[in-house]
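Hi there,

I know you've been waiting on this one. I reran it after we fixed the sequence typo, so this is the corrected version. Both the input and the resulting structure follow.
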Amino acid sequence: MKKNILLISLLLMAVLPSCFHSGVESPVTPEAPAEAPPVVLRNFEEEDQLSALALATGFAESFIKSVESGEYSFWEKKMTPETAKKVNGEKFLKMREELQKIFGDFKEASFMGELISGNLRSYLWKLRFTREKDGKPEISETVYFVRVFCEEGKAPAISGFGVKVF
């Protein structure tokens, strides 16, 4: 069991740092790499609340549908191009396989709520899995999160996501 948790943790560590996206594009030339301007975060305004929740919900629902069906394409449609290049179908299938080894077969997801941390919002979903153990059904649950931020002059954007293995 510890080996499986270590494997999924290593896989997520390899994938998740590449999943953070500031929304700032920085053109780079071979002669002189350009420095990206610093990202200036702003507080969530009232109108940002619903759009941030809708953004996170759409992203999470596509991930959940991909985990349930094994079809990466559902999730890929909601990714930024940069993230889609790094979290490819092969990595997704490995992550899904590890989730199944640790938790069993995916059964359902439910929205748990929002955590506020300064200028970031983390939206949380409980993922429920089941499997047979000693001839009896066993339930395992974990948390999937989508983190959203607001950059000055822009709409809310996803800055990170992942599965929290407890």
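Quick highlight: Residues 1-30 have pLDDT under 50 and may be disordered.

Best,
R. S.
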